[in-house]
Every structure is written in C-alpha cells, then in structure tokens.
Specification:
Number of strands of chain A: 18
Low-confidence stretches of chain A: none
CATH architecture of the largest domain in chain B: 3-Layer(aba) Sandwich
Largest sheet of chain A: 8 strands, mixed
Strand order of the largest sheet of chain B: 7-6-5-8-9
Distance between the termini of chain B: 30 Å
Strand content of chain A: 15-25%
Oligomer: heterodimer
CATH topology of the largest domain in chain B: Rossmann fold
Radius of gyration of chain B: 19 Å
Number of domains of chain B: 2
Helix content of chain B: 25-40%
Largest sheet of chain B: 5 strands, parallel
CATH architecture of the largest domain in chain A: Alpha-Beta Barrel
CATH superfamily of the largest domain in chain B: Aspartate/ornithine carbamoyltransferase
Structural class of chain A: alpha/beta
Low-confidence stretches of chain B: none
Distance between the termini of chain A: 18 Å
Mean pLDDT of chain B: 93
Shape of chain A: globular
CATH class of the largest domain in chain A: Alpha Beta
CATH class of the largest domain in chain B: Alpha Beta
Mean pLDDT of chain A: 97
Strand content of chain B: 5-15%
C-alpha cells in the first residue's frame, strides 16, 4: 500500500485538541505523523480543496446489517458500502439477525463477511440472552473473544430487571457495556406512533415516552446496585434524558445515544404526503416537538454522548403495507452526516469539535474501540467532509440495499467528501470531482 | 360560509380534508338525493356506465348495504369484495391489492379497512376516486355527514348547537370524523367517556372533555352515543358492563338534563343496556332510524359529487 500525505488539511480532532491546519502522514494503514510542515517522503501527496476538513473516522455504534438471515434487506457488503458512503469508517451491528448473534460462530461469520467486503470496520454486538429471548445468558466471554464489543437484545428490551442485573455483573468481567433498547412491553403493547395528539387524531395506537423512561430508570437503578456500564440505545424521550442526566450526576456509568431522525423530525411527519407514510414509522417513534427540542438540548449541553443512526433497512415490499402492519425503522447511514451538519452545526447548535465528539470520539470511548482521534500509531481511519456542499437525498440512489428513508428529496448543507479506512480511500463522493482528483494525486 | 360548487379532491378520505363550504355542498346535495327515496321508482340514471367497487377488508353490514343501495339508486355498476384481514395475509402488499383492483378500471372504490390510513395509502397509487367507508380508528366521513344531515333536518342548523358525544372515544372513527365536522360547522362539542378510553390532546381541537355524563348531557341539543366494543368490557379498559352502564349508560333520567327538544343519535349497531337504555333508544328523543335512512341519501350525494356532479 502506498503511503499518503494529506497536506495542510483542516483537522478537527477534539481528543487531540486539534482544530486547524495540519499535515497527516499515513503509512502501512496507520497514521505515522501529524504536525505542521512535515517533510514529504515518497508518499502520494493529497491536497484537498480548502473547504474540506478531516476528522477522525466516524463510528456508528447502532446499525442493523441484516446478515445473516435477512439478506433481502441488507448484507454486510451493502451495509458497509452504505456506511463508507455516509462517512463512517466503522459500524457496530446489532445482534437481531437470523440466527441471532448469540454464539461465537455467528460473530465469526459476521467478522469474516466484513473482512471480505473490506470497506468499513465492523464491530459485532452480541446478544445478552440466547435467542434474545430473555431467559438465559449467552456465552459472553466467548462472544467477546470472537470480536463482540458489547451485548444487547436490541429490537427488544433486556427482558427483566434480574437479567439486566446478571448481564451487567457478568459483562463487567470483560469490560463491555450492556446496550438496552429501553421499552416497557406492557406500556408499548401494540403502539405504532408516539402517544400524543397526532397519533390520537390519526387513529394510531400510542407508544408513550414513559414506556422508554421506565426501563431507563430501571437500568440505571440496577447499574447503581451492581456497577457496570449501561448504554441507552436510540433515546427519544425527554424523561429518559432526565434519568440519564441524574444517573450521571450520581456517578453511575450510563451513556446514551440519539438518532438524527429524533432530533430532526417530529410526529407531524406522519401527516406528510397525504399521511401514513410507513417511512415515518420507527421505534422509538417520532415524538412531539418538546421531545425533539429536549434531544437537541442534550446534544448541546453534553448530556447525550453519541449520535447513532439505528440504520434499519427494510425491503420496499415490507414497507408497502398498512401503517400498523409495516415494520419499524428507516435507513440512516447515508443521511446522518448531512442531517447533523445542516441541523446541528450550520444551525449553530454545536460546533465542529462537538460534532466529532458525538460521531467519533465518544462512540469509540463508549464501546472501547480503536480510533476516535487521529493519533500517531493509531489506525488511519479518517473522514473527509465538505461542510458547505449541498446534498440532495435521493432515496432511489442510496447505496444501501434498502431505500426506506423519510428524507427523500431533502436538500441539506454538508457532504461527505471521502472516507479512508486503514489508509485506503474506500469512498470518494462522485459529486466532488476536485476531491477525486486530489486523491488520485493529480 | 358559502356553499362550494364542487369538491376539491377526487377522493373522500376524511372530514379533516373538507372545508365548511364543501360539507354544506354535500348536505344540500343529499337533500335532493333524499327526494329520490320518496319516489315509486327509486332510481336515477346519474351514474349509468360507471363502475364502483366496494372493497371491504373488515366485516360490515350496515355501511356496505347503505353504499350498495346508494350506488344502485344512481344506476352504477357495482361489485363487492369482502375480505377480512390484511392483504398481507394473502402474501400481497396493500399496493398489490390496489393495482389488482385498478386493473379492472373502476371509477370509484368504496373502502373499509381495519388499519387507520389504509385508504390514504391506496389513494396515492390509485387513479380511481377512493371513498373512505371507515379506516381503523381514524375516520368514517360518510357517517359524520349523515349525522350532520340528520341534525340539520331536525334542528335546521348545526352552528351554535351543543353536541355531546359519549362512549369509547379512543377507538372511535365516528368520533374523529364528527369532531372535525361539528367544529368546522360551528357547533359546541363536549366529549365524555371513561378516562381509560380518552385519547390525549382532544382539547387542542377546541372541544370540552369530561368523564361525567351528567355534565356532558346537561343542556345538550344533541347526544351522540358511541358503541363500546364487547372486548373492551373485561380487562384493563373497563371493569364490567354493569359499571359502564352505571357511569356512562344513557337513561331517560339523564336525558331530562338535556335540552327539552334534544335528539339522541347512535351510529349503530347499538348495545342496548350497555351504552344506551332501550327507553332512550326507542323513545321520543331517538333519531337512530332516521340516521340509517339518511345514510343512503348522503352516500348518493358523495358518489354523485365525486363522479363530477354531472349527468351522464
């Protein structure tokens, strides 16, 4: 592999306290030098347009790659292609495949497929319980050895307080977090939309914010009792955010993530385009404005740790059903960066360093992954952004195998220019020919 | 308010999409249609050569019969398909079903479905006019229109009347359509039901919400009762039929709190002794059978207006 010299690029890396112009030398898949006015050896010199900036590789800690078992929705190859097109150099994939990733053999299969694809790094998340049925702990030690970086029964909550207790106790031996899809099954019942005036008038069964926060509070109480690290997946309710904030204040190791759709959209989207567009159906559901604003505040004030997409591909046939029968979820890998840059950075909610914290540094910290900063000796996983370039989302042109997005036709300010994984340029935005030229060394 | 001269949409998906002028147009047209029912030969050639498909994904006797009669009186060619459950139970998507029906080139599709929004989803892919004959717990627009027609026939107006709507508010599509219609037409609405069956946010529509039946009925010009499904009666929504009738059953004693000339309505089918006492259902207040008769006229008016409002 040729070495690469990124010359005088705008680097935003809060972990290394860098926000300015630096040279980066990449050799053997690693970053070997970061500094000013470095000497060029025989490396390919890349001179990016001045409007571009370079961040540590973005990491999405909540995606569904669907393989094994649901390859009609997504495969590890198409999902990681979608990831790098969205600027993500690494993803952590949830275990609710078929079979469930509750055994090292499944984890090994995922790792093998990811290596064959050779695009984004893939960090599997193992199941908490066998079959995610909530009855018996998985062989967490084995899962960890095979490559799992966390455990979760995502798609479902960790079934009981006792299972949460045992999972937290056991997982501490391996230093990995328990990620919970927090939802009280009895309150959720057959709800399909946020419980509020919009669902009430659309005649859709409600899914209250408290269904989430009750389990968040349970998990925090259990973590207070036995220790361990609880990570709240796709947080959407302001009550949950309050619980997480007070948990952190009490010194409990609790972290949380929020998805772009929960801080961009509200349940008013369920009325768009004549109403009942199943691409506005996800779990947790799009909630009222006060909830959206609470998530924005949590992103601003630092109490939310991570932005993750909950990338949930579904085939168009599955989404072409009645609203209450269609599956929950939307794809998110390719829209996350434009949404975050447009709605958070350009909107003045957060600055670029905080953007990098939410999408790279903290995801790496929460799951204990390499990366999250551009460090000498660290992996050469870098994301190149063109924050002032307008992007128009075309669902049909998404790289992901599935096209279930509510953002079709949206124009947003902020593009991914290129994605570098282990020193290899795995994606260059075809809309930006000057970036492609820079990487070809011409 | 000015009566509209035509409907803006080629579909009737809900009352939410209509304005007061369009509602008035449907009510005035219904009056002309009602006259047909009084003739010896109850049939006009208005929709001759037009095809109407009655697509019922949920069992229905009254609404389906009412639509069929309306279609036949307008001389439309009708065909019906009743299939309980979703398209998906046959391995089809909702869109497949729509395209299959569409291939037969109907002019209009009258659709009943257990899922809220199903007709709205179908309307996005169909060339035919869609008439919503009830979608899940969302809307039942022709029911609200026939209720309005009946109120207007009895009271001469809707604006300024006090209307109480009582029963299972959470699961009622009749409620939602009536809330839109009555508030658009200037009635003052109070809704009443057990706290477990009140959806959130009704106040935002400018209606009064109460759990006390006496308060709701007091001074009411119209009392509209909603059906309470038997499956809600034992379990977590309600403890028993007995307690429901005690708290929310409409009795002659309670009707004495209403306006002297108050009317009582019910979309049917009634649960006698559950939400309504037979002495009320069959008493001087009741206009329940008039509602059924008016339903045919109102549905004729809707079919006629959506077909373009022209003689063919």
């Amino acid at each position: 592999m040729r070495s690469m010299f990124l010359k005088n690029v705008h680097v935003v890396d809060p972990v290394a306290s860098r926000n300015g112009r630096f040279d980066i030398l990449i050799e053997g898949g690693k970053v070997t030098r970061v500094g000013r006015d470095l000497a060029v050896n025989d490396a390919t010199v890349v001179e990016l347009p001045a409007s571009c900036l370079v961040t540590p590789g973005l990491i999405d800690i909540h995606v569904h790659l669907r393989e094994p078992g649901q390859e009609h929705k997504e495969t590890i190859a198409t999902g990681t292609a979608s990831a790098v097109a969205g600027g993500f150099t690494a993803v952590a994939c949830m275990p609710n495949t078929d079979p469930v990733n509750d055994h090292a053999s499944v984890t090994e299969f995922i790792m093998k497929r990811a290596a064959e694809a050779g695009l984004a790094r893939v960090y599997p998340i193992g199941a908490v319980s066998v079959g995610s049925k909530g009855e018996q702990l998985t062989e967490i030690g084995d899962l960890r050895s095979a490559g799992c970086v966390a455990i979760s029964d995502d798609g479902r909550p960790v079934a009981t307080a006792l299972l949460m207790r045992r999972a937290l106790e056991y997982a501490t031996m391996f230093g990995i977090p328990v990620i919970d899809h927090c939802e009280d099954p009895s309150l959720k019942a057959d709800g399909v939309a946020h419980e509020g005036p919009v669902a009430a008038m659309l005649g859709l069964k409600g899914l209250a914010g408290a269904a989430e926060s009750i389990i968040v509070e349970r998990d925090i109480s259990v973590a207070e009792m036995v220790g361990g690290h609880v990570h709240v997946a796709h947080m959407s309710a302001r009550q949950s955010l309050r619980a997480v904030q007070t948990g952190k204040d009490r010194g409990i190791k609790v972290t949380s993530e929020v998805t772009p759709h929960h801080f961009v959209l509200t349940d008013e989207a369920l009325r768009w385009h004549g109403g009942y567009d199943t691409n506005t159906k996800m779990n947790p559901p799009l909630r009222e404005e006060v909830y959206r604003v609470a998530m924005i505040e949590g992103l601003r004030d630092g109490s939310i740790d991570v932005i993750a997409t909950d990338h949930a591909p579904h085939h168009s046939d599955e989404k072409a059903l009645e609203f209450d029968r269609a599956p929950f979820g939307i794809v998110g890998l390719e829209t996350a960066v434009p949404l975050c840059l447009d709605r958070l950075v350009h909107a003045g909610v957060i600055g670029l360093p905080r953007f990098v914290e939410l999408l790279s540094a903290n995801p790496a910290r929460v799951l204990g992954l390499p990366g999250g900063t551009i460090a000498e000796g660290g992996p050469a996983d870098l994301t190149v952004l063109s924050p002032d370039t307008d992007v128009t989302v075309h669902a049909a042109s998404l790289v992901s195998k599935s096209k279930n997005t509510p953002f079709d036709g949206w124009t947003l300010k902020g593009a991914v220019a290129a994605t570098i994984v282990g020193g290899r340029t795995v994606f260059v935005n075809p809309q930006l020919p000057e970036v492609a030229r820079a990487f070809s060394g011409k | 308010m000015t009566t509209a001269t035509a409907l803006k949409s080629r579909h009737l998906l809900g009352i939410e999409e209509l304005d007061a002028g369009e509602i008035e147009l449907i009510l005035e047209t219904s009056l002309a249609m009602k006259e047909v029912a009084g003739r010896a030969i109850k049939k006009v050639p208005t929709l001759r050569g037009r095809t109407v498909v009655n697509l019922f994904f949920e069992s229905s006797t009254r609404t389906r019969m009412s639509f069929e009669l309306a279609e036949k009186r307008l001389s439309a060619d009708t065909l019906g398909m009743t299939t309980v459950g979703s398209s998906v139970s046959k391995g089809e998507t909702l869109t497949d079903t729509a395209r299959t029906i569409e291939a037969m080139a109907p002019d209009m599709i009258v659709m009943r479905h257990a899922s809220s929004g199903a007709p709205h989803q179908l309307a996005r892919v169909c060339k035919a006019s869609i008439i919503n004959a009830g979608d899940g717990t969302h809307e039942h627009p022709t029911q609200a229109l026939l209720d309005a027609f009946t109120i207007k026939e009895r009271k001469g107006r809707i604006a300024g009347l006090r209307v109480a709507i009582v029963g299972d508010l959470l699961h009622s599509r009749v409620l939602r359509s009536n809330l839109y219609l009555l508030t658009k037409m200037g009635a003052s609405v109070v809704v009443c039901g057990p706290a477990t069956l009140i959806p959130p946010g009704l106040e935002t529509l400018g209606v009064e919400v109460t759990t006390r039946l006496d308060a709701a009925v007091s001074g009411a010009d119209v009392v509209m009762m909603l059906r309470v499904q038997h499956e809600r009666m034992h379990g977590l929504f309600l403890p028993s039929v007995r307690e429901y009738f005690t708290l929310f059953g409409l009795t002659p004693e309670r009707m004495r709190l209403a306006a002297e000339d108050a009317i009582v309505m019910h979309p049917g089918p009634m649960n006698r002794g559950v939400e309504i006492d037979s002495a009320v259902a069959d008493g001087r207040w009741s206009v329940i059978l008039e509602q059924v008769a008016n339903g045919v006229a109102v549905r004729m008016a809707v079919l006629y207006l959506l077909a373009g409002g022209e003689e063919t």
